[in-house]
Amino acid sequence: MSAHVSESIVLRTYPLREADLIVSFFTRDQGKLRGVAGRARRPKGNFGAGLERLSHVSISYYQRENRELVNLNSCELLHSQFPLAASFETSVAMDYLAEVADQMLPPGEVNERQFRLMLSVLEYLRQGGSPWAAVSYFTFWMVRLAGILPPLPEEDETRALAAEMAASAIGGLPPRDWTRKTGALLRRFLVRSIEDHVERKLLTVPILESL
């Protein structure tokens, strides 16, 4: 049994028994892992707010050979996304980011660029950036980095928006009115491409599109 400490982003948690959680988390050096956080649901557990959705943390865990689930020991919170939940639109966008990452990232496959993508998008949101810009940029780069980006639709505006996202960091996107309608065609097209490569339709998409 080997011990690890990894810089990570928490993707999802699921209840297990009375006080435990199953945690899906994306590590910088080991890729996406799933593990059991014992007593994480108790007030005096070892994890505190570190297992909240999309928390940027340093996780200590033990990994046994031939075991799918690792055992989480503790975590140190590096950046909390809790203040972002004050905005309903941003909160739904975060649900979408977490769900897409959890569905798209293959287990145990290290991908530094996808890790940096998530950190950049979360930093952009913490600085007050538009959730629609974050969702569009993240979706475009997730399908591109996953190697499933199909030929884009022929609309000039769609191609121009994709070119901007391919050439710019998220914080450096040219100013535009990032409303729900901005880039909606491109975003829906990319979401369909994602859903073609996962086992089920994304749960947060209908909520996102209804805002």
Written account of the structure:
The structure is a single chain. The chain is an alpha+beta fold and 211 residues long. It has 2 domains: 78 residues, Nucleic acid-binding proteins (OB fold (Dihydrolipoamide Acetyltransferase, E2P)), CATH 2.40.50; 128 residues. The chain has 6 helices and 5 strands. It has a 5-stranded mixed barrel with strand order 1-2-3-5-4. Helix 1 runs parallel beside helix 3, helix 2 packs antiparallel against helix 3 and helix 3 crosses helix 5. The chain is globular.
What tags apply to this protein structure?
6 helices; 211 residues; 2 domains; 5-stranded mixed barrel; OB fold (Dihydrolipoamide Acetyltransferase, E2P); alpha+beta; globular
Helix share bin? 25-40%
How far apart, in Å, are the first and last alpha carbons? 47 Å
Number of helix segments? 6
Integer average pLDDT: 90
H/E element sequence: EEEEEHHHHHH
In short:
This protein has about 210 residues and is α+β, with helices and mostly antiparallel strands. It is about 35% helix and about 25% strand.
What is this structure's SSE topology?
Blueprint: E1 2-16, E2 20-27, E3 31-37, E4 56-63, E5 69-79, H1 88-104, H2 112-126, H3 131-145, H4 156-167, H5 184-195, H6 205-210
Parallel strand pairs: 3-5
Antiparallel strand pairs: 1-2, 1-4, 2-3, 4-5
